[in-house]
Amino acid sequence: MESVRSDAAAQAGDSALTVKILVAGGFGVGKTTLVSAVSEIRPLRTEEALTEKSIGIDDTTAVASKTTTTVAMDFGRITLPNGLVLFVFGTPGQDRFWFMWDELAKGALGAVVLVDTRRLADCFASVDYFERRGVPFIIGVNRFDGAGRHTHDQVRDALDLSPEIPVIDCDVRDREDAKRVLITLVEHIMRTMSSSRQAVTY
């Protein structure tokens, strides 16, 4: 983790060995749940109740029990076994809050894009955002009750992903499973940084 640690410290301006990452994806895909599951501190949430004004704007068909929505960000913190501290920021999922993304993405070394296979199209914008900015990301396929099972290759093909981008299954309600998602992202960031350095060397 040394390469990630030193780069993260430079980003943070101190020796705290911290890494800022984002959790993105469509509306109701589990971003707030993941941040809450892994955070070792009381997570910061900026949720507001869904009202009748959101009818026709927020599609709750697949998440009928959802009653709130993130309007700015979620924030949590987790310390990995090697001492690396992750600052985890959850992004808002609806189009009307995307003006927040550029601010949240400043200094972020990577991202998790959560997907619901019942509505894969909802994560296209997140994938495109990180691809265009060259931010390393992984895909976390959140296992929703009633969602069909798809292979990683099927998900990869549907999202038109490069072969090196990890795709993993997860249940973000489970702390250990959610933590595994973040560790997978950190490992992917390390590989991406290593490849970039080798390309510059050659």
Automatic annotation (TrEMBL):
Keyword Membrane annotated: no
InterPro entries per the UniProt record, alphabetical: Gliding_Motility_GTPase, Gpn, P-loop_NTPase
One Gene Ontology term of the molecular function aspect: hydrolase activity
Pfam families: ATP_bind_1
Keywords: GTP-binding, Hydrolase, Nucleotide-binding
Source domain of life: Bacteria
Keyword Nucleotide-binding: yes
Family of this protein: Belongs to the GPN-loop GTPase family.
Protein name: ATP/GTP-binding protein
